[in-house]
Every structure is written in structure tokens, then in C-alpha cells.
């Protein structure tokens, strides 16, 4: 017997429908959809070439030649190095045909080779996420160790030292000196790749407080204190008043005495014997010596960042010796031709953070106070930053606080 049910008057029958399920969004990597592709990622091995990598995936050799011959500003095989990341995308067929080769030049920039029909190439860049951080520390041993013990990149220690390079001798910081720093971190694929700019900082050195705030004027970054005074000191354009450059900074220059090509990480100023040599900035004489190649020479440490060197000197100025403080523009020595030299000139060298750099290419921030036309804007910008620095309490030991949203 079949049971039947009757629908009462006024009732309406309803048809139940399954909820509509939206398909997941496609997975995009390096600018193309990869859901239907196989994928193999690896890193360049020691002495491995582009051909070594691609022939193992059966990429035709003529295609490899085409890839190697693209413009060098797009891809230059000579700069492939061990540890660089690459990915091969493969068709899901029996032959696992290679469709794309992606090479990462660095954590941000990459180049994509399309291998479907003919070789195609394009460059791209990953999204960089910038996060703001606040870190407070108390010196127990050294600035470097303070960052290391809290798993903060030591690059931040270097950037902080650069901010206060003229105010604090970081070779002589004291136990219980303390600091607060508001800065940026750059992330790619959720991994920290670099430390960004220090936006605001406070450093208490032997009981004396120092503030530093970033401000950009005409695309030049500079740091000023809470009153708008520059944290930088000025450098002279050259260590001689009257001279000409006889040889510039070069990675490969023919040495007139040694008769071979070698780097010349200095600037040679031709000038008559006895011409006064000037200190390019305030500092302390750190070296006064003689060597077979440099002749009589001097080094001046200007701060924990910059050191200048003066070579082939004839003689030193009176009272110049290690440990003596000198002023910008002060005569420290006289042009000569001692050491490996073909004639009277000054070999001038400049170090930044321990590395030789081209002095003429450096762009030093302004060494004067904030111009009046910028003062109101500057003071309004730093007001909340200074308040943040003042209100963040110093911990008993260095600690890292959560990201500021």
C-alpha cells in the first residue's frame, strides 16, 4: 500500500537547491596561471650554467642559445651565482614539456622565459610589503650584540649608527647607553629581505639625549634633531684649494710605475710640491705613517662612518700626530711625491663603513638647519614621532615590540 500525503490549502511546494559553490580563484605566480602546470624549483649550484640546468629538462639547445643571447640588462648568464633561485614549469603531459623558466635575479626581480613555441622573455618584480617596527634597546656589551640577541638584523645597528654618526662615537658607547628606533622592514613572500629607512630615533649616550628624524628635501634624505638642526657635518669638495684631478676613481687603471692594470680607488690631485693639504671635515688623526707604496700618509677618522686618507705627502703640518683633533679646512700636511709616485700630487682616499668609495660621487645631506620655508612642515611631521619616542618605555633589557599597524 502506497501512502499519499495531501497538500493543505494555502500551502506552496518548495524546491530545495544546493548552495552555489564558487570555484577557487586561479593561482598566479610570476604573472601567469600555474594551476594546471607541474613545477620544479631549485637553486643554482657551484659552476652550474644555464645549459646545465635546461638540458636536464630537455629544452632544445637552440632555445638555450636564444635565452643566453637576450639583452644583458634583461638577463646576463655571467651573473648567475650559486644559491640563486629558479623554477621550471612543465606541461602535465607524458613528456613533461617545459613551458616556462623563471630565474630570480634577487629576492625582488625576476625574468620569465616562455618556451611554448618560440622563446619569449619578460622581466617582473615581486610585491614588496613594508612594515613599520619599533625597537628599544639597552647596551650591555655592544650595539651590534644588542641587536643580535633579539634576532634583529645587524643592518639596523649600522643604519642607527649612521643617523648619529656625528653626535656619538660608536666605538666608545657605554654600558647602559640606551636607544629607541622607529624604522621600516621590507618583506617579499612573507620573508624579511632588507631593513628600510630609520624614520625616527632616540639615543641616550652617557646621560645625554640625542634625537634624529628623517626628512626629505628635494629628493635628498637627511636627518635633523627635534629643533630642526642638521645631524650632519659639512665636507669640503676637495682637500686642496687649487688643483686639478689627474686621475679619477677607477676599478681598472694602468699604473705608470708598476706597468699593469689595477684598481685605483682614489682620486689623484695634481698640485705643486708643498701645496697645503686640508682636512675635508672635523675629525681625529688615526694614522700617521710611511709605506713603500703610499710614502708619507695620514688617515683621519671623522666619525664612526667616514675616514679620509692622504698619501704621497712631502711632510706633515706642525703638531699633527695620532689622537690629535683637527678642524675642517685645517692644514694637515703638504703635497709631495713620496712612495710609488711619478710626480707631485695628492692621492686622496675615502672610506665609508670601512669600504673605499668614490668621494666625488657621494651626495652628503645638507649640513645646515631646516630652511624656514620647511620648518613648519618639519615640526608638524616630527611631533607625533617625538611623542612616540618619549612615551615608549625602555625595558630592562633590549626587546622587540610588535609591528605598528
- Quantity of strands, as a count: 25
Shape: extended
Characterize the main sheet: 10 strands, antiparallel
SSE succession: EEEHHEEEEEHHEEEEEEEEEEEEEEEEHE
Q: What is the strand content?
A: 35-45%
CATH fold-level label of the largest domain: Nuclear Transport Factor 2, Chain: A
Provide the structure class: mainly beta
Average predicted local confidence, pLDDT: 86
Q: In angstroms, what is the radius of gyration?
A: 31 Å
CATH classification, class level of the largest domain: Alpha Beta
Low-confidence stretches are 1-6, 397-405
Which helices and strands occur, and which strands form pairs?
Blueprint: E1 28-29, E2 32-33, E3 37-43, H1 50-55, H2 61-68, E4 85-91, E5 98-104, E6 109-114, E7 120-125, E8 129-138, H3 143-148, H4 154-163, E9 178-188, E10 191-205, E11 208-217, E12 220-224, E13 244-247, E14 250-254, E15 261-264, E16 267-270, E17 276-278, E18 283-291, E19 295-301, E20 306-316, E21 325-326, E22 331-335, E23 345-352, E24 355-356, H5 372-391, E25 399-400
Account of the 3D structure:
- It is a single chain.
- The protein is mainly beta and 405 residues long.
- The chain folds into 3 domains: 29-125, Nuclear Transport Factor 2, Chain: A, CATH 3.10.450.350; 129-232 and 384-400, Nuclear Transport Factor 2, Chain: A (Roll); 244-361, Glucose Permease (Domain IIA).
- Helices cover 12% and strands 38% of the residues.
- The chain is built from 5 helices and 25 strands.
- Strands 13, 16, 17, 18, 19, 20, 21, 22, 23 and 24 form a 10-stranded antiparallel sheet that branches. The protein has a 6-stranded antiparallel sheet with strand order 12-11-10-9-8-25, with helices on both faces.
- Strand 23 and strand 24 form a beta hairpin.
- The longest helix is centred in the last third of the chain and has 20 residues, at 372-391.
Amino acid at each position: 500500500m502506497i501512502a499519499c500525503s495531501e497538500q493543505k490549502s494555502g500551502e506552496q511546494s518548495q524546491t530545495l537547491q544546493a548552495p552555489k559553490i564558487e570555484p577557487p580563484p586561479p593561482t598566479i605566480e610570476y604573472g601567469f596561471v600555474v594551476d594546471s602546470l607541474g613545477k620544479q624549483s631549485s637553486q643554482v649550484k657551484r659552476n652550474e650554467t644555464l645549459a646545465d640546468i635546461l638540458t636536464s629538462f630537455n629544452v632544445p639547445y637552440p632555445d638555450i642559445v636564444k635565452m643566453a643571447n637576450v639583452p644583458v640588462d634583461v638577463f646576463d648568464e655571467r651573473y648567475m651565482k650559486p644559491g640563486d633561485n629558479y623554477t621550471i614549469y612543465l606541461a602535465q603531459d607524458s613528456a613533461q614539456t617545459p613551458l616556462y623558466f623563471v630565474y630570480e635575479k634577487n629576492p625582488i626581480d625576476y625574468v620569465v622565459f616562455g618556451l611554448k613555441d618560440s622563446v619569449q622573455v619578460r622581466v617582473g618584480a615581486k610585491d614588496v610589503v613594508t612594515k613599520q617596527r619599533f625597537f628599544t634597546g639597552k647596551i650591555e656589551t655592544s650595539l651590534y650584540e644588542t641587536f643580535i640577541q633579539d634576532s634583529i638584523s645587524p643592518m639596523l645597528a649600522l643604519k642607527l649608527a649612521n643617523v648619529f654618526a656625528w653626535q656619538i662615537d660608536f666605538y666608545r658607547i657605554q654600558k647602559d647607553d640606551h636607544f629607541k628606533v622607529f624604522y621600516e622592514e621590507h618583506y617579499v613572500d612573507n620573508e624579511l629581505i632588507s631593513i628600510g629607512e630609520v624614520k625616527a630615533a632616540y639615543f641616550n649616550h652617557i646621560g645625554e639625549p640625542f634625537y634624529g628624524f628623517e626628512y626629505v628635501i628635494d629628493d635628498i634624505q637627511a636627518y635633523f634633531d627635534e629643533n630642526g638642526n642638521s645631524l650632519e657635518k659639512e665636507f669640503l669638495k676637495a682637500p686642496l684649494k687649487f688643483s686639478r684631478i689627474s686621475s679619477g676613481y677607477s676599478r681598472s687603471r694602468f699604473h705608470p710605475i708598476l706597468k699593469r692594470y689595477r684598481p685605483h680607488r682614489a682620486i689623484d690631485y695634481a698640485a705643486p710640491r708643498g701645496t697645503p693639504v686640508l682636512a675635508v671635515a672635523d675629525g681625529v688623526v688615526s694614522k700617521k705613517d710611511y709605506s713603500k707604496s703610499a710614502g708619507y700618509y695620514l688617515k683621519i677618522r671623522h666619525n664612526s662612518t667616514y675616514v679620509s686618507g692622504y698619501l704621497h705627502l712631502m711632510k706633515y703640518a706642525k703638531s699633527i700626530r695620532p689622537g690629535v683633533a683637527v678642524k675642517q679646512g685645517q692644514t694637515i700636511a703638504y703635497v709631495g711625491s713620496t712612495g710609488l709616485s711619478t710626480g707631485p700630487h695628492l692621492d686622496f682616499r675615502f672610506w665609508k663603513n670601512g669600504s673605499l668609495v668614490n668621494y666625488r660621487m657621494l651626495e652628503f645631506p645638507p649640513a645646515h638647519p631646516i630652511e624656514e620655508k620647511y620648518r613648519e612642515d618639519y615640526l608638524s611631521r616630527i611631533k607625533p614621532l617625538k611623542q612616540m619616542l618619549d612615551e615608549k618605555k625602555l625595558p630592562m633589557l633590549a626587546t622587540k615590540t610588535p609591528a605598528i599597524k
